Amino acid sequence: MSSDAGNGMGTTGNAVRPGSADARRPDDPEITAHQAKGNGIHQMVIGAMLAGLAPLAGFLGGSMSGSGAGDGIGPLYSWLFGGLVVGGIGIGIAFLGGLRWMERQRDRSADPDDPGSQQ
Length: 119
Description:
The protein is mostly helical. The chain contains three helices and no strands. It is rod-shaped.
């Protein structure tokens, strides 16, 4: 007896519920490359949040660690520098998301079969 016997889909084991994640594979011909790739909005939002909050978190971490006593680079500067580096990575992520979003908008306006086309 198959593990799918009790779900009303028969005993083949190949049936997939229509709304499940397994039903939407990127190699499925009915799913376009745009749907599999995403439209970049999430990347822009996550990158912008990272770019805004990472330097603040670096400054907070540096403030909590103290000024340090010595001639070397203090913990405040190290934490702030780390926050700025992570913020720069966030800017890069947001930029790549914007490029992906612009590419999707350009391809959408050029595709006559797309119901959301701008033509």
